[in-house]
Description:
CATH architecture of the largest domain: Sandwich
Order of helices and strands: HEEEEEHEHHHEHHEEH
CATH topology of the largest domain: Jelly Rolls
Number of strands: 9
Number of helices: 8
CATH superfamily of the largest domain: Jelly Rolls
Helix content: 40-55%
CATH class of the largest domain: Mainly Beta
Structural class: alpha+beta
Number of domains: 2
Amino acid sequence: MLINYRFENFELFSELDKNTLDTVIFYLKPYMTKRQADQKSVILDENDTVDHILLIQKGVLKSVQYTPDGKELIHHIFAEGEIFGCLESVTGSRLTALIKVEKDATLISIPSKIFLELMNTFLPLKDAVLKYFGKKSEYFIYHGYILKYQKAKDRICLFLIQIAHKRKTVTYNFSFNMETLANYLNLSRSALSKELHTLESDGLIEVKKNMINILNIEGLTDAVEG
């Protein structure tokens, strides 16, 4: 049985009004199951089909591929409040990357078939899903845009600017380690640490354990050299 959870904390449901959200949860909750996933375990392999949507209640998942020499390339990090499998369930597409657990996770699983039945018959949920796809598309496009920049500082600044705008906050709390962030930005750990230290010395950010405070977002914007 699921413990009580504020489903409005999930990005997909965040813009639904209370009555609409209650209707969605009333329909889906009998089919929901909770599962624990240990760090480094593989949730799904490349080329798998997705038959369940996963709500990340706690922990972190990541979408990764590996180069022939074993280097990890992270396409996306799914943190608490995010959802995996919605797009793949709707399109019926196979995975192009592994889905692994970056940090011990508590997941709420919903059969894709049940979710799609509700989405196709309940217009407010369908609208929410389409808006969610739009946001995610912007996110993936921006990630590709960041990686076009050659300098480590530029990538870090653009990433922090994106986080500030997306989450409407100047504090970025890590739910994963620095190595994961470095892989996500396709940087070495040493390059990431060096540039974060430089940005902190310049008074643009404050770095604490698992947290970055953005002190001057305009300064971060100006620091991007291109």
